[in-house]
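Action item from last week, closing it out:
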Amino acid sequence: MCIRDSNNFKSVDFYLLDELLTEEQKLIRESIRDFVNVEISPNIEEWFEKNHFPLEIVKKMGSTGIFGPTVSQEYGGGGLDNISYGLIMQELERGDSGMRSTASVQSSLVMFPIESYGSEEQKKKYLPKLASGEILGCFGLTEPDFGSNPGGMISKLEDKGDHYILNGSKMWISNSPAADIAVVWAKDESKRIKGVIVEKGMEGFSAPKTEGKLSLRSSLTGELVFDNVKVPKENLLPNKDGLGGPLGCLDKARYGISWGAIGVAMDCFDAAKKYSLERKQFDKPIASFQLIQKKLAEMLTEITKAQLLCWRLGKLMDEGKASSSKISLAKRNNVDMALKIAREARQIHGGMGITNDYPMMRHMMNLESVITYEGTHDIHLLILGLSLIHISEPTRRYAISYAVFCL
């Protein structure tokens, strides 16, 4: 039996991508890799098997600088570039998609909208605590009947003069059962979508846990339920309304996912290569067989293509040139790539590949969520098609333009 040693993990860097990275970016990647090797990899199979989210990991992530890496240092963030953010997501998801989801939500779906759309008072009140992990946040957009068409949401925000009343529900919400705050999107009386910050403890607000998950079992998923919740006026995000608000957050999160998927693929490739060199059949390592070499070569090719894709996308993000369709291409391609590599790596392991001595089955199960949330695989394909042709029947254009399904 060949048990994986995460501490022996080495970068897959066939095209010398490190030469395109700054010294700071490489140091950031190494520090997160060390964090994953110490705090996540030794425990993740047990957490996954027990459907356990280790709440203590939140403050550890905060103290490591994982939350809000691109948020201004003025508000407790890292003030880093988008490639650094991507490398952080890559290393976290190499450990586990659920761990990356926790950080993605905190950084891209909670801290990003508060910094981008919030008031100065909101930034000072929430961002430093979110960055340090003192508080955990979640993002409420998806509803029971509105996934790929969030513009159809029915959650309502009524103006009562000195406060708002919020009614409705959200589902498939990562972090929600343990979240201290929720960035929630709802329609006002004019049917305009607004964002509000809802705090744990507000009367009528509950966040029941989603049970029975067979994917992302090391992270928390739940609902958000609002029954005449009184929300102070100062909790409204004042600098953005309309569906562009939540979709801007999702662009940021999808970008991080495109990097995270590379981490999964690298972990599976590393495990498969190591196993193939140690596992013997017919008196020699199975790595000597051409069919195994073919599988490994194809894995390496796809990982290398994804790395270069994300590096270029990161540059475009920093330059403000990364359109939603460009981000859709990367998210769709890289998650699909990672899922295929996880399956091939499982085959190289044979029967041992279905055990939790190896990471492939856990990664495969997690990726079934990742390929669906924050824009399904097929919806991202339609977004790309529409961006190329600019012709679509009106009903389909409406659905595609607003396409999300987020956890």
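Closing note: Residues 1-8, 394-407 have pLDDT under 50 and may be disordered.
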